[in-house]
């Protein structure tokens, strides 16, 4: 008898607790439904104010010293050329010299590649420039064949473009995206006959920088275009509001 009473008491307590949990679940569900989630967009178009450019030159010779002396001579010609184009000496950076032994390879009777006799040393060095004079460096990169015409084996890369005031651009876009999101939320609440309550949650997306009018894909970690001088940046802000 006592055992049955105890079981009935336990069951009653469990029933009451279950009703309480169910009530909280319904309350939280209804509370969750009384929210508006909106996403705002902020964009900004700007022109790069920093440019980087690099090129490499090389020399080949069986004698390592002669190859190095030849590379030094080419370096002087290149340096003098860059200075003559108005590039400041402190803007010109040279890498260390890369030295590679070259061998003549051939295929054996089975078609396998075999390393043959030594064919000389190949020495390569890179010159790079970083400058805020974007137009000047652009012109230099387009007319670099003038160095090649002087008998130097020179390979030029395409310029890369950057913007030094990106922090200010990001802050401006965040403000724009936040305002856009709030205006959307207010419009939704108005159209549904409700009032916009307090902000519950704000989530910011990553900044995406692409070329204007391009079909570049956005990246999960944020796109960062360096090939275009003209750029457009965008960012999203997701806001969640209570609805009164």
Could you characterize the architecture of this molecule?
With 244 residues, the protein is of the alpha+beta class. It has five helices and ten strands. The strands form two sheets. Strands 2, 3, 4, 5, 6 and 7 form a six-stranded antiparallel β-sheet that branches.
Number of helices: 5
Q: Give the beta-strand count.
A: 10
What does the overall shape look like?
Answer: elongated
Q: Cα distance, first to last residue?
A: 54 Å
Biggest sheet character: 6 strands, antiparallel
Residue runs with pLDDT of under 50 for 5 or more positions: 14-32
Average pLDDT over all residues: 87
Indicate the structural class: alpha+beta
Strand content: 35-45%
Instruction: Supply Rg.
Output: 33 Å
Fraction in helix:
25-40%
Q: What sequence of helices (H) and strands (E) makes up the elements?
A: HEEHEEEHHEEHEEE
